[in-house]
Amino acid sequence: MADASPTTTAEKPANSRGRVIFASLIGTSIEFYDFYIYATAAVLVFPALFFPAENETAQLLSSLATFGVAFVARPIGSILFGHFGDRIGRKTTLVASLLTMGIATVLIGCLPTALTPGWEIAAPALLALMRFCQGLGLGGEWSGAALLATENAPAGKRAIYGTFPQLGAPIGFILANTIFIAITYTLTPEQFQQFGWRIPFLLSAILVAVGLYVRLKLIETPAFTKVVERNEVVKVPLGRVFKHNWVQLIQGTLIMFATYVLFYLMTTFTLTFGTRAATEEQAAAAAEAAGQPFNPDTFVPGLGFQRIDFLWLLIIGVVFFGIFTLVAGPLAERFGRKWMLAGVSALIVVFGLLWVPLFGSGFVGIMLALILGFTLMGLTFGPMAAFLPELFPANVRYTGSALAYNLSSVIGAAPASFVAVALWGAAGGSPLLVGLYLSAAAAITLVVLLVSKDTRDNDYVNTTSA
Predict the structure, then answer these.
(1) CB under 8 Å to 34, separation ≥6 — which residues?
(2) Where do the Major facilitator superfamily (MFS) profile domain residues begin and end (predicted)?
(3) Total domains in the fold of the chain
(4) Would residue 424 count as lying in a domain?
(5) Which of 24, 301, 332, 413 is least enclosed by beta carbons within 10 angstroms?
(6) CATH code of the domain covering residue 160
(7) Rounded to an integer, what distance in angstroms lies between the CA atom of residue 199 and that of residue 192?
(8) Domain boundaries, position 198
């Protein structure tokens, strides 16, 4: 009896289920909130505020280019935070990534614009720098949150637990855009352009404080604790990944590819497409109201929605994203990660081929397109927090999964909005080429999934190659 108590204590889970779920969920919700308020501002206000000397299309492309800077930073962040996540632990690294993202976001809300005399060059340069820092933080955030959830999960429930950090994406999106809508209702367009856009960035400070409070109360995950106990901490995790797990790194990068392309087409691109004037007359009137010149030679027609109306449509679509993120967990446990994701990827291929009839069918078709797209997004995004980490052994799991996730962002997310706008313009305002781009991305992911092994039954606490 004297030995019973210590044994029980040693086997007790380090973190309670509620603490694990809440800490992984709130952290990614805050991180994605920060990320999305930039995405929304990059379409709605940054073109005119930070790139005023260019025409409308060039303004938008310049703004989207700074949006893409974060995706270049994300692999660097995954290497930096992944190194420390595999060396000193998940908890401390998660706190550092949250601070990096949060401070950069608040500082964006304090920046002068290029309309301020003397800041014509410095303002967009500082905006790009802060965006780079956002990318660094998010590069380390996702993998740490995924490991926090899955390394504390009971047997047979890793994919289910893994959906909770994934749920932070739709929650962050809804929170960010709800705040933008509230500001739009409260302020005049002139006030929103002058100072209202700063409010969501400054409010991030409150959210970061809450996230830090929760994460500082965490205890290290059982899997990393065992790595330390076995003296199997790797001195250079990145080197080990490239030497022993490069195949899994390539697989993970391409498995995530379609998910990234789908998400940024459904959010950033559709917001651009949906709120662009449908006729030259509407575009000319909008330019005149904003005090900007209108060039009919560069005009590309969109769907003609008011900004606030289309944001509501996106929020409705993202509700389906959240619901089917949770649905994806049990499906991935039942059918395995590989076959569940392969089926969803095939459906995304079909969805891309339907963009012209859906977006060309009026309000009902547009709403159906958003619901279908975000439903597929939830189904493909939900299992990733389990699937990608399961590809790698415990002592390099933070680095491996973070690098795969964020390398995919470079080839999938970073160019998605920019390429989509270019394809949209090349097609004269038709979404045909954009839909084909999505289908091609999904086809690549589908092929990689079909030649990969399922990871559902992998030993999650070992340090051998997956």
Answers:
(1) 101, 102, 104, 105, 134, 137, 138, 172, 204
(2) 20-456
(3) 1
(4) yes
(5) 301
(6) 1.20.1250.20
(7) 9
(8) 17-220+233-450
- What is the C-alpha to C-alpha distance for residues 416 and 254, in angstroms, rounded to an integer? 15
CA distance 46 to 354: 31
Q: What is the pTM of this model?
A: 0.85
Q: What is the DSSP letter of 234?
A: -
Q: What is the pLDDT of residues 28-46, one digit of tens each?
A: 888 788 878 887 788 778 8
**Where is 27: in which H helix or E strand?**
helix 17-44
Give a yes or no: residue 459 inside a domain: no
Q: Within 13 Å, how many C-alpha atoms sit on residue 2's CB side?
A: 0
Kindly report, residue by residue over 352-370, the tens digit of the pLDDT: 999 999 998 899 999 999 9
Contact 254, 448 (CB under 8 A): yes
Could you write out the DSSP letters of every residue in 111-156?
PPPTTSTT-TTHHHHHHHHHHHHHHHHHHHHHHHHHHHHHTTPPTT
Q: 228 in a domain, yes or no?
A: no
Closest to 265 in 3D by CA, of 410, 138, 419, 128: 419
Answer whether residue 272 is part of any domain: yes
Cβ-based neighbours of 370, under 8 Å, separated by 6 or more:
266, 270, 313, 314, 316, 317
Burial readout 188-227 (b: 16 or more C-beta within 10 A, e: otherwise): eeeebbeebbbbbbebbeebbeebbebbeebebbbbbbbb
346 residue type, one letter: A
